[in-house]
């Protein structure tokens, strides 16, 4: 089993996987404008393809949650990776806008959502204290994608044709499958059992006899193995054979019993040829080493059972009755919709503020430092103990509401870019923390359930998004009132998070009792050694 809070390599692999899988999401503003140009669409119809993609991105969490009851989360992630690159490659041969909606929106969007859920759940299993930081590194992949893909796709679109651009993007996306495979959950059987067995066998050097000895189960092991024939142990002290002495015979039985327990757990059918023969009546430290070896095997078994239990998502009915669960769900709904709206309108809104087409395409890139700061450094402050995670999320809701409201009063592109960069700091932190607070309150496996519930609310909103964008942009002439509406919702959510934190503080003593480390009763694991015969 991997140690908690030490699998940082997996965090960076997750970052690379998300950087590839979120290429279309981070470039939604580019595709929004490009689809309008290629198919001569207005703003309402032009946002339809990206809205379908975003809706499937959120709604596919339902598929991932349902499949998790039949398949492992790593297998589900591989399925999603195949859907991504197959959907992108199919865009090259899409004959019309209808097929483009299916390949770009449905196939690729479904794969992106499934990969996002799988990678997040897999990564969170390896972290506890630094869970927010690790999740922030995973979401840094979205920021890197915003840095890389908008200028890359703009260059490919200018150099090659519209369809050739999808062919090249699909080739890049083929690298996603091996990255997701590298994040697969570890083997549930501990890899160090053979090392522990060898460590036990080195307690003392010994010889083997020629006669046979029936194995006893002094440690309470499997009695079905007690009739196996193994080399007879011989113990000597002062030149006298003590195989009939009670203490020596008991310790020999313990040694062989542990050997059989270890071999049975590793799947071998026979004990090693060299079995321990204790050269003298064992001291207490030898007994302790024998006991510790058995305890390590029992601990490994309990860890495996805990992992298997954790791998199954909790029943949704137990979560739906918790008020805190709905606070996190509606908070995630607001963050996801704000992310889609902000990313999808940033290019068009920059053009409204006097930016050139190149400056508008680069507007997404200019927000990347802010995204990285908000998604990694702010969550690290919470992990380091400078702020509570729920409190940090509530503060980010409030500050994002203030900064996005300022976008409506800006008159120049430079002021717009500055406010957008500030807003992305807090929205980036919320993107990370929306899953972390759920895992802190309900467990890691509840993340997929909350993600699926969030999708039930986000998908209808995204399907209505073309009408919403068309209403504000085509009928009212700008996105300012849209930004004001989103800001008011974020302010309301910040109040809900602060109230939740106050409620949690009142029950702090109970929470400490529930999260206290409980050590097993060591007396129950002690071995009693018979006294020597007088």
From TrEMBL:
The chain crosses the membrane at residues 47-67, 74-95, 107-127, 139-158, 164-183, 390-409, 415-437, 449-469, 481-500. Pfam families: MFS_1. Residues 225-242 have a biased composition (Basic and acidic residues). It comes from the Eukaryota. InterPro entries: MFS, MFS_trans_sf, Proton-linked_MCT. It comes from Amblyomma americanum (Lone star tick). The keyword Oxidoreductase does not apply. SUPFAM superfamilies: MFS general substrate transporter. Keywords: Membrane, Transmembrane, Transmembrane helix. Gene3D superfamilies: MFS general substrate transporter like domains. This is Monocarboxylate transporter. One of its GO terms (molecular function) is monocarboxylic acid transmembrane transporter activity. Residues 217-242 are annotated as: Disordered.
